[in-house]
Amino acid sequence: MTPLQMEDIQKELLSLSKWTLKDEKWIERRYLFKEFLQGIQFVNEMAGLSEDLNHHPFITIQYKSVIVSLTSWNARGLTQLDFDMAAKFEEIYEKNSTVSS
């Protein structure tokens, strides 16, 4: 995997408007849920996908809020895989949420 250039990162972020760039090597998003267990279900589904792809996010659960951070350690920055996974996480969220964030 090769790291993306900043220009490419900015382009990718246009399609993931709720994700933000952190320290030029992470993308991050906070997801909000109506109920605690919705967030847990979301995390479980993300975990399954992450395990299948062998690419694991940092996940923080704060009651009805789930914060997800992605980077590619081996590439020492963001790769296309990070953005592809973020898009898949958005699909999982849409399926599991009843509250917009």
What structural class results from the helix and strand content? alpha+beta
Distance from N terminus to C terminus (CA atoms, Å) equals 31 Å
Q: Please identify the oligomeric state.
A: single chain
Task: Profile the largest sheet.
Answer: 4 strands, antiparallel
Number of strands: 4
Q: Approximately how much beta-strand content do the residues carry?
A: 15-25%
Would you mind describing this structure in some detail?
By secondary structure, the chain is α+β, with helices and mostly antiparallel strands. The chain has helices at residues 6-14, 36-53, 80-96, and strands spanning 20-22, 26-32, 58-62, 65-70. β3 and β4 (65-70) form a beta hairpin. The termini are far apart.
Question: Topology, pairings included?
Answer:
Elements: H1 6-14, E1 20-22, E2 26-32, H2 36-53, E3 58-62, E4 65-70, H3 80-96
Antiparallel strand pairs: 1-2, 2-4, 3-4
Helix pairs in contact: 2-3
Task: Offer a concise description of the structure.
With 101 residues, the chain is α+β, with helices and mostly antiparallel strands. It is built from three helices and four strands; from the N terminus they run H-E-E-H-E-E-H.
Keywords:
101 residues; four-stranded antiparallel beta sheet; 3 helices; globular
